[in-house]
Design brief:
Length: 463
């Protein structure tokens, strides 16, 4: 690591991380009139931070800047070039005016371009050009202009007025624009989260509106929506994320809350589909079988090495036949469709003492309720925890539905849950050859699991 007083850029390596990304940082202040540089002419450079390559940039970059440059910053946007020989860069605003040792502020209006190192010159030129493009409306971006955080703080303060909470001074940023924002603000009580999504994730805003308006239980309490920003403000869930130490009683709480959430979502499933929720109802699943398996078959043929053994035509015929059978049996059950969560990870679950809150509904689906139960059981891990979670989940359903139908749905859902996961992981806008290697590898693994579940599918009435 270079000293802060060195003329070399500051390179901060994250601990215990092997794969990192070098990110040059364009630090601006005074409404984009000054930029921070390190070193001396003719070798001016930009600060450089190394961040984990497969994690969010903002939670690593902004604390790194504060830790090693001694200054707080507000992130605006990040650019990751497709060419690997060009560094990524982020544009941030400085809070405060002091330049760290070995650094200086230069006026943007009189930048001595010839005095910059080549990579710093190209990066700064690109950053300023992009800022002007955003300002001129040539590029879309709401949370990229200097001072954008001030506007959000003002709106947040106004939105808290009727809640009895006062906005605090502590805040944390978890994303970099251009039209996506995730911020945590302290208050006089529980913290609040501001979230805004871009056009490509507009369904999350619409789905959150539907769930909030329907007062479906076990979702974050939303205090306000901002339609123009596709943003909302919610109270932080009081609980903890589950992990390998989570006790069976806590999994019971989570499972019971999940069943209550799903029961409460039944009246609004049509609205959720209209808002962009994924359609995993029986007939939609049946209609997706042929295309999905054709794509998975192509991926199997592209498998780079053996083992594992690639599935062949006979195995795919088995999967297809069993999937079609499962969908027809599901349709015949006339089970109520409910909301479910297709990204049911530990990070989207907050378990409290007597209540659980489920977060981040971008991957909301509508379909058979027990699909999400299968995901929850997978998270619960130990067989004892899985059994306790299932029994707690089924308490409510047994009061509403005959035991024979519950048993039939439980028999179908292991296969259907894996199939739904394959559909969610695949990207049908790309050919199988265009999928990245990690996604292709995961899809092949899921397809093998799907084959195992297909072979294990019980006959009707055998449970």
């Amino acid at each position: 690591m270079q000293s802060l007083t060195s003329s070399r850029p500051v390179a901060v390596a994250p601990p215990n991380e092997q794969e990192v990304m070098r990110c040059l940082v364009v630090i601006l202040r005074k409404r984009d009139t000054e930029v921070l540089v390190s070193g001396r002419a003719p070798g001016y450079r930009l600060p450089s931070i190394e961040v984990p390559a497969r994690q969010r940039i903002a939670p690593n970059l902004l604390p790194g800047i504060e830790r090693y440059l001694g200054m707080r910053t507000v992130g605006r946007f990040c650019v990751v070039p497709e060419l690997r020989n060009r560094p990524a860069y982020s544009v941030v605003d400085a809070i405060g005016s002091c330049a760290p040792a070995g650094h200086a502020w230069l006026p943007v209006s009189a930048i001595p371009w010839d005095n910059f190192a080549p990579d710093a010159q190209a990066t700064l030129w690109s950053a300023l050009a992009r800022i002007h493009a955003y300002a001129a409306g040539k590029l879309a971006g709401r949370f990229v202009a200097a001072g954008w955080l001030e506007e959000i703080r003002a709106w947040t303060e106004d939105s808290l007025a009727g809640s009895g909470l006062r906005l605090g001074e502590v805040w944390s940023q978890y994303s970099l624009g251009p039209d996506y924002a995730l911020l945590r603000f302290s208050t006089s009580g529980p913290a609040v989260w501001f979230k805004a999504v871009g056009a490509e994730c507009a369904r999350e805003f619409a789905i959150t509106e539907v769930l909030s308006a329907a007062a479906v239980p076990h979702i974050p309490r939303v205090l306000a929506f901002q339609e123009d920003w596709r943003a909302w403000l919610s109270i932080e869930a009081a609980g903890r994320r589950p992990d390998e130490q989570t006790a069976g009683a806590q999994w019971e709480t989570a499972a019971r809350s999940l069943s209550e959430f799903q029961m409460g979502s039944i009246p609004c499933t049509g609205y959720l589909l209209a808002a962009g929720g994924r359609d995993l109802r029986a007939r939609c699943l049946h209609g997706a079988i042929e295309l999905c398996l054709s794509r998975m078959g192509a991926l199997m043929k592209m498998q780079p090495r053996v083992p594992p053994v690639a599935l062949g035509a006979a195995e795919f015929l088995t999967i297809a036949a069993k999937l079609k059978e499962a969908c027809l049996r599901l349709d015949a059950l006339r089970a109520p469709d409910t909301a479910g969560h297709s990204d049911f990870s530990a990070g989207n679950i907050s378990i409290g003492e007597s209540d659980t809150v489920f977060l981040d509904w971008a991957e909301c689906h509508v379909g058979p309720p027990f699909i999400t139960l299968a995901y929850l059981e997978l998270l619960a891990g130990a067989p004892r925890c899985r059994r306790r979670a299932r029994e707690a989940y089924l308490e409510l359903w047994r009061r509403e539905w005959p035991a024979k139908q519950i048993d039939e749905l439980l028999a179908l859902c292991p296969l259907l849950a894996v199939f739904a996961c394959v559909l969610g992981c695949d990207d049908p806008t790309r050919t199988p050859e265009e999928l990245d290697s990690d996604r292709a590898r995961r899809l092949r693994s899921l397809t093998r699991r799907m084959h195992l579940e297909a072979r294990a599918l019980p006959r009707p009435g055998s449970r």
